[in-house]
Amino acid sequence: AARRRRGSAGSAVKGSAGAFGFMTSTAKKKRRPAVRWPPARELSWRAAAVDLLAAYARRSACVSGELLELLESAVRCSLINTGVFEKSLNNDEDGAGHVAVNDWPTDPGIASALATFRLATLRAFGAVPGGASAYASSHRSLVALCASPVRPLPGSNLGSSCVAALRLALDQHGDPADTALGPWTSGGDAALDELRAFDGGWDSPAAGFDGDDFLHIANLSVGGSFPRHTGLAATLQAARLATLARVAAVADDAIRTTAMRALELEAGIDPNDSAVDSSMKPNASSTSATPTKALFNGKSTAQGWSGASPASLVNVCVAALALAGVRTFDSKASKETVASSLTRLASAVGNSPASGPAHWRAAAELDARAAELVGDAASSSLLTRLAETLPDTPPRLRRGPPKSGEGYSSVNSSLIGGGGRAVAAATCASTFRRAGALASTAAMRPLVKSLVATSVQIDVGSDATHLWSLHALGIVAHHSGPGFRRHVNTACSLAFALMNSPECAHASSASATRAACGRLVNAAVAAVGPDLDPGGKDFARFAALVSAIQTGGESGAGSYSDTHDGDAGCQLEAALFLQQLALFAPQTAPPDRLVRRLRPYLSAKTPGLRRVAAATLRHVCERDAGAVLRCSADTVGSDAGGYGTSHGGGLEADLLALLDGYGEVDRKTASDATRALWLLTRANALDDPAKAAKRLAAVALHAPGQDWGGNEVDVTAAEDAGAGERDEGGEGDENTDRKQKFRELSGRSAPKLSTRVVAAAMMSAIPKLVSDHPAHLDLALARSSLGNKWLVGVAHAIVDLGYKLATCSVESLRPRGLAMLTNLVCVLGESKDPDVVGSSLLEQFQAQVLSALRAAVPDLSTNSFQDSPDDPSTPPNPIADPACIVEGMALAGEALTNNRVTGGDAGAVRRIVDFIARPAVAWLEGSNGSGMSKQTSTSRLFSALRDESECAEGITCRVRIVTLRACAVAAVHAPEALFAKFPEGVSVSLGSQWAALTTRSPSLVGADLVTRLAVARDLVRAAGPTLEALASTSLSSKGTDGSSETRRAVIDACAESLNAAVDGSMALKTHTNADDDDAAVMEELFEPLNPPPGAGGGSGGDEVVARGGDVVSATRALRLALDSHDSTSMDSSAVNAVSLVAAVVAKTKSFRGDDAFIRESVRLLASSLNIAIARGGSGPPVSTVSTVSNEWTVAVAALGAALASGAPSPANGSAFVSLERLFVATSAHVREDLLCAPFLALATRAAVNDGVQEAIPLLSAAMRRCPADLGELAAKQILTTATFTATSGSLTASLASAAVVAAAAYGVDVSPDAFDVVDAIVGDVRADASVAAAALATCRLNVLTVAVDDVNGAERARAFLRRHGAACASGTRARCSLAAAAAATDDVTRGAHAVAAAEGLKLWTAAVHLGRGDLEAEAELVSVFLPLVMDAGGGCVGSSYSPVPALRAAAAKLVQMVAGVAPDGFRAAVSDLGDESKRRLQSALATGSGGQGVGATAPGQFAPPGTPPAISLGSRG
Q1: Span 747-759, average pLDDT
Q2: CB under 8 Å, gap of 24 or more: what pairs does 191-195 form?
Q3: Highest mean pLDDT: which of 108-112, 248-252, 1243-1247, 1500-1504?
Q4: Which burial class, exposed, middle or buried, applies to 405 when counting CB atoms under 10 A from its CB (0-12, 13-18, 19+)?
Q5: Residue 897 CA to its chain's centroid (Å)
Q6: Residue 1385: which pLDDT band, with cuts at 50, 70 and 90?
Q7: What gap in Å lies between CA 954 and CA 1008, rounded to an integer?
Q8: Stretch (H or E) spanning 17
Q9: At what angle do helices 1236-1248 and 1293-1305 cross, to 10 degrees?
Q10: Secondary structure, 3-state, 953-1016
Q11: Are the C-beta atoms of residues 1242 and 1205 closer than 8 Å to each other?
């Protein structure tokens, strides 16, 4: 409409009309009529129109010309009386009704509407994307608008809000350490600061967006108790200052100069003054076009000095500080222009008679920023000049020479006028903070000397200017770091001098001086740093000074008051000194001393003390929480600093009291206290879980009449003592008196609900905190370990507290109790009851778990709630708490897993399944349309699950996910009980929802929810059980449709979960850092049930975590799918899933702690092996072998190789067995193309380098079936390595076995030393007995036994015996003798030699079996075997030692086996024996009925002397 009006009016008038009615004309103005303003209603709708523009600008991605044109029209409209001016156009009276820029309406309504209009205009420009540079065409108009006046409106206090803006500007652009200089009390109590800044204006505008103006920054506008604390005039004032600073930062030089001159004029600087700081910009002019004169009740004096009002000074400081904080000046000229103006503003502010400490601090920041803009040389020059002139600068305000006098300049006026020494000292501190390393280092020595000289000139007046010098010295020391080390003695001497000065002791600023000395001492301690010697002179001086500062020294001992700011500052410095001792000299501040001195500060009224105490306790707890716990007794020692004693509950209760009283005020302190409490709870839980839980339960389950330690408080005596006083004083409130007496005795009132929730949350995590210690989880191990405070021993106490939380009357605590029981069941789920064979330890807590579940969700069958909407006396149907449903489902799922709690009890299983099925059925019936006709009481009960409009979308999503997970667990562990609860058709809907969960379907999880961390975590936890449920129910068609598509979907979902672990988008849970896990558990405890928007943000790890899942469950589900389906229907998707498992195994660096995943991977390997053999075995001819067969072979080979390479025994043993089976069963051409080279390399590496004995069978098979060139290379490598290690004495059993295999396969063809190596292993008694035993067993199993049915192998075996048989026989005889000799002395040596001898006997038994059928060969082999039996069973010739009984028994058994295998050869060999040999043989056989020997002793134990070794006659030796 405005644009149409502009077009129609364009032909009628000379000029152009803007959208907001502003007209521009070239017509000559005839006269200026009386000022007339538009009505308030017109200004109001114009403000509303600008608000719409601001909303549009915020939603726009770029700036449009039309938008900027409208905003420009709004600026000009807010400066001119457009309504009257527009009416005069038709009468050709251009300019009629024109309002001057400095005019302000007198009518309150119009004034308020005009202020609202201008505020909306300025905020609209702040909403333009791209910042101030985007609306460069409006810079000049905005400067004019910002230079216009703001009058205090009726009923609005302009001054107090402007002062609040100055304080916020100093906090934002200054240094927090300068708050000690005033004028505001330090402490950082945000609520108190906000209350002080509360203006209470009736016309407070709506809060703007963050950053719109100086009064709406994050620390006041977000989450404050007083969100509308400023009036309209003050808000407009802040908005115009913020806009002026933004424009001046990016505008061109002319407009920037105009803006700066506007500030200078407001500061009272004469526009005709051209004096410029020569050190800043020697050749530039400081004047420009004179801006419009500002009217803030300011007056110019005759000398041109500042006559600005206090409000004008505040405005100048706020805007100039904002401009000084800009970092985007691009040119040197711009920087010099701004620096020159900042210097003049700093001089004007410092010279003003109305200035105070806040203005002096602002002036110092402006001077320092001006020097920084010009360069490091300017900063160095300014510091040097300040160091020279500071001692001569008067402490009091003194007027400088007249402007026309000889000594006037901007430089000396800023040094000797206005704030005087205070401004100069503050400028020293601010400039030193901003200066570079070279400038600060060069100026440090003269600056320290000058500041020390002025600090000792004590000012007993109200200004206390010596504090500014002392504070500046502390800043110099703090920012110099180790560079201040050379001035430490000077700093200590100065502190001692000030502490002992009578003037300082009796001045009004005595406590502030002590606090400043404390800051200087702490800076000196930080300068010494780790070099602080506890026994040195420096430490003694520091400790003495801090003690005097804390107690007041000789003049003020014991006069501490926590409410006095100065004394609180002294205590704060003492606490900071303790904090530095904990960092730099922990041996001087052990935990017992630190806790004793810091613990009282937790209840201090000063926020700074609480903050330091919480931070230091957190640091000490991070270092050694156990030591802190041991020294945190209930009673505080005598050196507590006058704070009194604790009130029960230990240090944990003190931290909870801090959270209870100040947790909502100071978030940083609350965070430190929460972390310290968590660390203490973890340390206490490791020692005594029940004690840790009880300490927290005293607060979480707080009962009337008890303190925070759970102790009863006896108020009877106090009541009796006060009864008489109450009678004498007349009537009184007996209940009130009793509560007052209880508070006096207990020290604390009842905790808040939020504090109780924090305590309950930490209670729920106690079982998780001890899950890494095996004695906490195994009752048998706990009974044999020292102490009796293991979790399994106090589980009844944990269950009792969890049950009390789960069934308490406070609804907010019930989920925490359910979570506590869930964590306990999860941690102790695999614990067995040693007193009842086959029973789980948790079965004894079945009643408590079932009762807790019953209390989590109301049972409508036992309640009086009815669906009677017509009866007003009937209460409405209850709604189950979503948090209770979430935690209850988790508890039910853990209780059903492997019958941990139910123990197979059908009734218990039915009740738990009923708890799971009720909400699921109510939801699924409604989702498929069968239950929407009438809302029943059950559907109302679970409305949070079935109705998205009942609660937040995130809560509904999480409840559905945990419900599906619980149903999946029940489908795996109790399928009959679960599906008996589901009506016909609902079970299919359940399967559909499971499929939607595995695919993250938008129908279940919205796109904006899947990226939130809490939802992503729930999806990951539900993925594994859901996959298992789909896999286990796919054949039975329960919960699924049983189609091949569903089965393929299960495998695809498993592959997706595994792929997330392979590509790194999901970290494996098994090898994360312990501290990261601890932080994650703590973070999860306190997250809201409804995940906030942006939690996860959809970027980084949170988005991809939602794709992941539990790799253990995914592997198990994949195995179930492979086992349950027909192997002929397996396609490439299953092959891909198996390959992904192999990739996950290969990617994991170490398998320590991954037993579950390894077990499932080995089982999957077995299942995959069966399919691979069936699909790619040796049966089909070469032409019919399919590519899929090769794919299965490769996938299974990769999985087996990954397990064999990194998994611990026995998993790698099982993997090598599977690989050997696959290798042997695969057809020859597939084996040669795919398996020979990698399998031979793997077996060689495992046997030679890794020492894996289980790799020998695969090595033997690969040696026999691989091409000759590959086998020769591997054999040469093995034999060469064995020769080298045998000479060095480091030969391993696996390498010796590999050498035997290589020598048997290729022998001297590849290594001339092969003969000597094998003979040295099996025949030299100097070789290790265990190595010889392994080599002999390999000769038997992998050389002789496997060659029985192989013609080529038999010939190789005979050749091996011909070459090495003599060495094997001689070595066996020698081992028999050594075993007999060691029988009475050394059990270990005797056993090793006996086992080696037995392996030699079994080798020749296998040799006889190999030569069966050839009578001559049989007799020859038996003739070698029988003498060995004589030595083993009858004793060696010439030896007086008795044979080993177990070896005699084994020899007798082996003789029986040989006689049965080769009877003719045995008879022939025996007949050739002489009489003595026959007698010895009969003697050996006579006592051979002893069986297979005595079993081995328990691990870690020693058998008594004479105990026979364990000798097995099995095929594996």
Answers
A1: 86
A2: 191/225, 191/665, 193/167, 194/220, 194/224, 194/225, 194/226, 194/229, 195/225, 195/226
A3: 1243-1247
A4: exposed
A5: 29
A6: low
A7: 10
A8: strand 16-17
A9: 140
A10: HHHHHHHHHHHHHHHHHHHHHCHHHHHCCCCCCHHHHHHHHHHHHHCCCCCCCCCCCCCCHHHH
A11: yes
CA distance 987 to 1005: 20
Nearest to 1246 by CA among 1238, 1237, 1256: 1256
What is the DSSP code (8-state) at residue 929? Answer: T
Which pLDDT does position 401 carry in this prediction? 45
Averaged over 657-680, what is the pLDDT?
A: 88
In the chain, pLDDT over 70 holds for what percent of residues? 71
> SS3 helix, strand, coil % of the chain, rounded to 5?
65, 0, 35
- Picking from 306, 413, 294, 313, the residue whose alpha carbon sits closest to that of residue 361 is 313
- Of 426, 445, 429, 531, nearest to 484 (Cα)? 445
In this structure, are residues 1432 and 1369 in contact, taking their beta carbons and an 8 Å threshold? no
How far is the C-alpha of 575 from the C-alpha of 550, rounded, in Å?
A: 9
Q: Is the pLDDT of residue 1358 over 60?
A: yes
Secondary structure (DSSP) of 1247-1295: HHTS--GGGHHHHHHHHHHS-HHHHHHHHHHHHHHHHHHHHHT---HHH
Tell me which of 1352 and 697 has the higher pLDDT. 697
Using the predicted structure, report yes or no on whether residue 813 has a pLDDT greater than 90: yes
Q: How confident is the model at residue 218 (pLDDT cuts 50, 70, 90)?
A: very low
* pLDDT at res. 1435: 66
Residues 1425, 421: Cα–Cα separation, whole Å: 110
- Rounded to whole angstroms, how far apart are CA atoms 491 and 1043? 84
Q: Is the peptide bond before 446 cis (omega within 30 degrees of 0)?
A: no
Distances in Å between the Cα of 1092 and the Cα atoms of 881, 1096, 1114 are: 19, 9, 29
Cα 94 to Cα 26, 32, 37, 103, distances in angstroms: 9, 10, 16, 19
Which residues have C-beta within 8 Å of that of residue 591, sequence separation ≥ 6? 620, 624, 627, 628, 630, 631
Tokens 């390595």, located at residue: 1281
pLDDT mean across residues, the chain: 75
Beta bridge partners of 891: none
Query: pLDDT per residue over 128-158, tens digit each?
Result: 888 888 888 888 888 888 877 666 666 555 5
For Cα atoms 653, 655, 659, give the angle at the middle one, nearest 5 degrees.
110
Tokens 């010309």 belong to which residue? 65
Angle, vertex CA 1357, rays to CA 1355 and CA 1363, nearest 5: 105
| Owner of token pair 């609005």 | 156
User: Taking the mean position of all CA atoms in its chain, how far away is CA 673?
Assistant: 17
For residue 559, the one-letter residue type is S
- What lies within 8 Å, CB to CB, of 342 at 6+ separation is 320, 323, 324, 366, 367, 369, 370, 373
CA-based nearest residue to 1428, from 1406, 1455, 1410? 1455
Task: Give the residue from 1379, 1280, 1373, 1292 showing the smallest Cα distance to 1327.
Answer: 1292
- Distance, in Å, from the CA atom of 861 to the CA atom of 104, rounded to the nearest integer, reads 74
- What is the C-alpha separation between 627 and 595, in angstroms, rounded? 10
Q: Torsions phi, psi of 287, nearest 5?
A: -115, 160
| Complete DSSP assignment for 370-415 | HHHHH-HHHHHHHHHHHHHHGGGS-SS------TTSTT--HHHHHH
What secondary structure does DSSP assign to 1063-1080, as a single string? TTSS--TTS--HHHHHHH
In DSSP terms, which residues pair with 712 in a beta bridge? 706
Burial tier of 1355 (Cβ tally within 10 Å: 0-12, 13-18, 19+): exposed
Q: 575-580 contacts: CB < 8 A, separation 24 or more?
A: 575/601, 575/609, 575/612, 575/613, 575/616, 576/518, 576/522, 576/612, 577/518, 577/521, 577/522, 577/525, 577/542, 577/546, 578/616, 579/612, 579/615, 579/616, 579/619, 580/522, 580/525, 580/526
Among candidate residues 719, 761, 607, the one with its CA nearest the CA of residue 672: 607
- Looking at residue 1226, the DSSP 8-state letter turns out to be B
